[in-house]
Design brief:
By secondary structure, the chain is mainly alpha-helical. Helix content is about 55%, strand content about 10%. It has one domain. The strands form 2 sheets. The protein has a 3-stranded mixed beta sheet. Strands 1-2 form a two-stranded antiparallel sheet. Strand 4 (about 235-240), helix 13 (about 245-270) and strand 5 form a beta-alpha-beta unit.
Length: about 280
């Protein structure tokens, strides 16, 4: 079984870091649900999504390679899984503070500067990184090097260039080396494949609350994917299209996942001695 391997290894090899995770998780369960204030029609970014991402990380890495991770890498990846979307639920005060620190490039040339929700959605990985840094003591992160690693792995789950070694280089902490590019690649793929029907948990959503057309389509797509299986060689989407039109949408999604898979495999190969084992995405009806 590849469930909970990261957590088990951390508990066995560093009781202190495992205790810090457990205490952070207790705080995070409420914090992660705050994204619903700004995004009531958006797919799940709660604690449940974080747990799914962590589960997929376990399966992507696999037993043999998890044995090659040091406890510090397990801690950083687990914390990154729980914190990578924390930026989706930031309050207005933090939004204003963090926005002063971000480089938005030419984004506002084509987007409404007053649409806070869309800005947060687009740059939520960067807001997550700033949130983690500001509140690192709340999560009892033990050192600056660990904080930096968690920030980078959380930021790295989308858009960032994981091959930029100035940004995603190895971080030394104590006697350990944290391979941030590899951990980020694993989590980016894990986040990408959390697309099954449990992404719309009934305890968070009711169909009648989803009124935005884009969200309706997204929810229908998730409902059409019964579950995702991560094997040694492939990621398999087990599907039952809600309507015939969703078959093509699932194929488009599979192509997108394939692109992410190929990129993350390249990152692993070019930045570490570890690998992403999966080679293809399969659709099974």
């Amino acid at each position: 079984m590849e469930n909970y391997l990261l957590e088990r290894k951390l508990r066995e090899e560093s009781k202190d870091l495992h205790k810090r995770v457990a205490e952070s998780v207790f705080v995070l369960q409420t914090m992660l649900s705050k994204y619903l204030t700004r995004f009531p029609d958006f797919t799940d970014h709660s604690f449940l999504h974080s747990m799914n991402v962590l589960d997929y990380c376990n399966r992507i890495i696999g037993d043999d390679q998890i044995k090659k991770l040091c406890p510090e890498e397990c801690y950083v990846l687990i914390m990154g899984c729980y914190l990578h979307d924390i930026g989706m639920g930031i309050g207005n005060r933090d939004f204003a503070e963090f926005s002063e620190k971000l480089d938005f490039g030419d984004y506002f040339d084509n987007h409404d500067i007053n649409n806070d929700a869309e800005t947060v959605r687009t740059f939520h990985n960067e807001y997550s990184g700033l949130f983690i840094r500001k509140y690192s003591e709340v999560f009892d992160i033990p050192s600056e090097s660990m904080t930096k690693a968690i920030v980078q792995v959380s930021r790295g789950h989308r858009k960032t260039d994981l091959l930029d070694r100035s940004e995603f280089g190895d971080i030394k902490t104590g006697n350990a080396i944290i391979r941030t590019a590899y951990l980020s690649a694993v989590m980016r793929l894990a986040d990408e494949i959390d697309v099954a029907s449990d992404r719309n948990p009934k305890l968070l959503f009711e169909d009648k609350t989803v009124t935005d057309e884009k969200s309706i389509i997204e929810f229908g797509l998730h409902e059409s994917i019964l579950y995702v299986d991560v094997g040694d060689d492939a990621v398999t989407l087990h599907i039952k299209p809600k309507t015939a039109e969703y078959r093509s949408k699932i194929e488009e999604l599979a192509d997108k996942i394939t692109d992410t898979l190929n990129y993350c495999k390249a990152v692993a190969e070019q930045t570490s001695d570890l690998r992403i084992r999966q080679n293809r995405v399969i659709i099974k009806e």
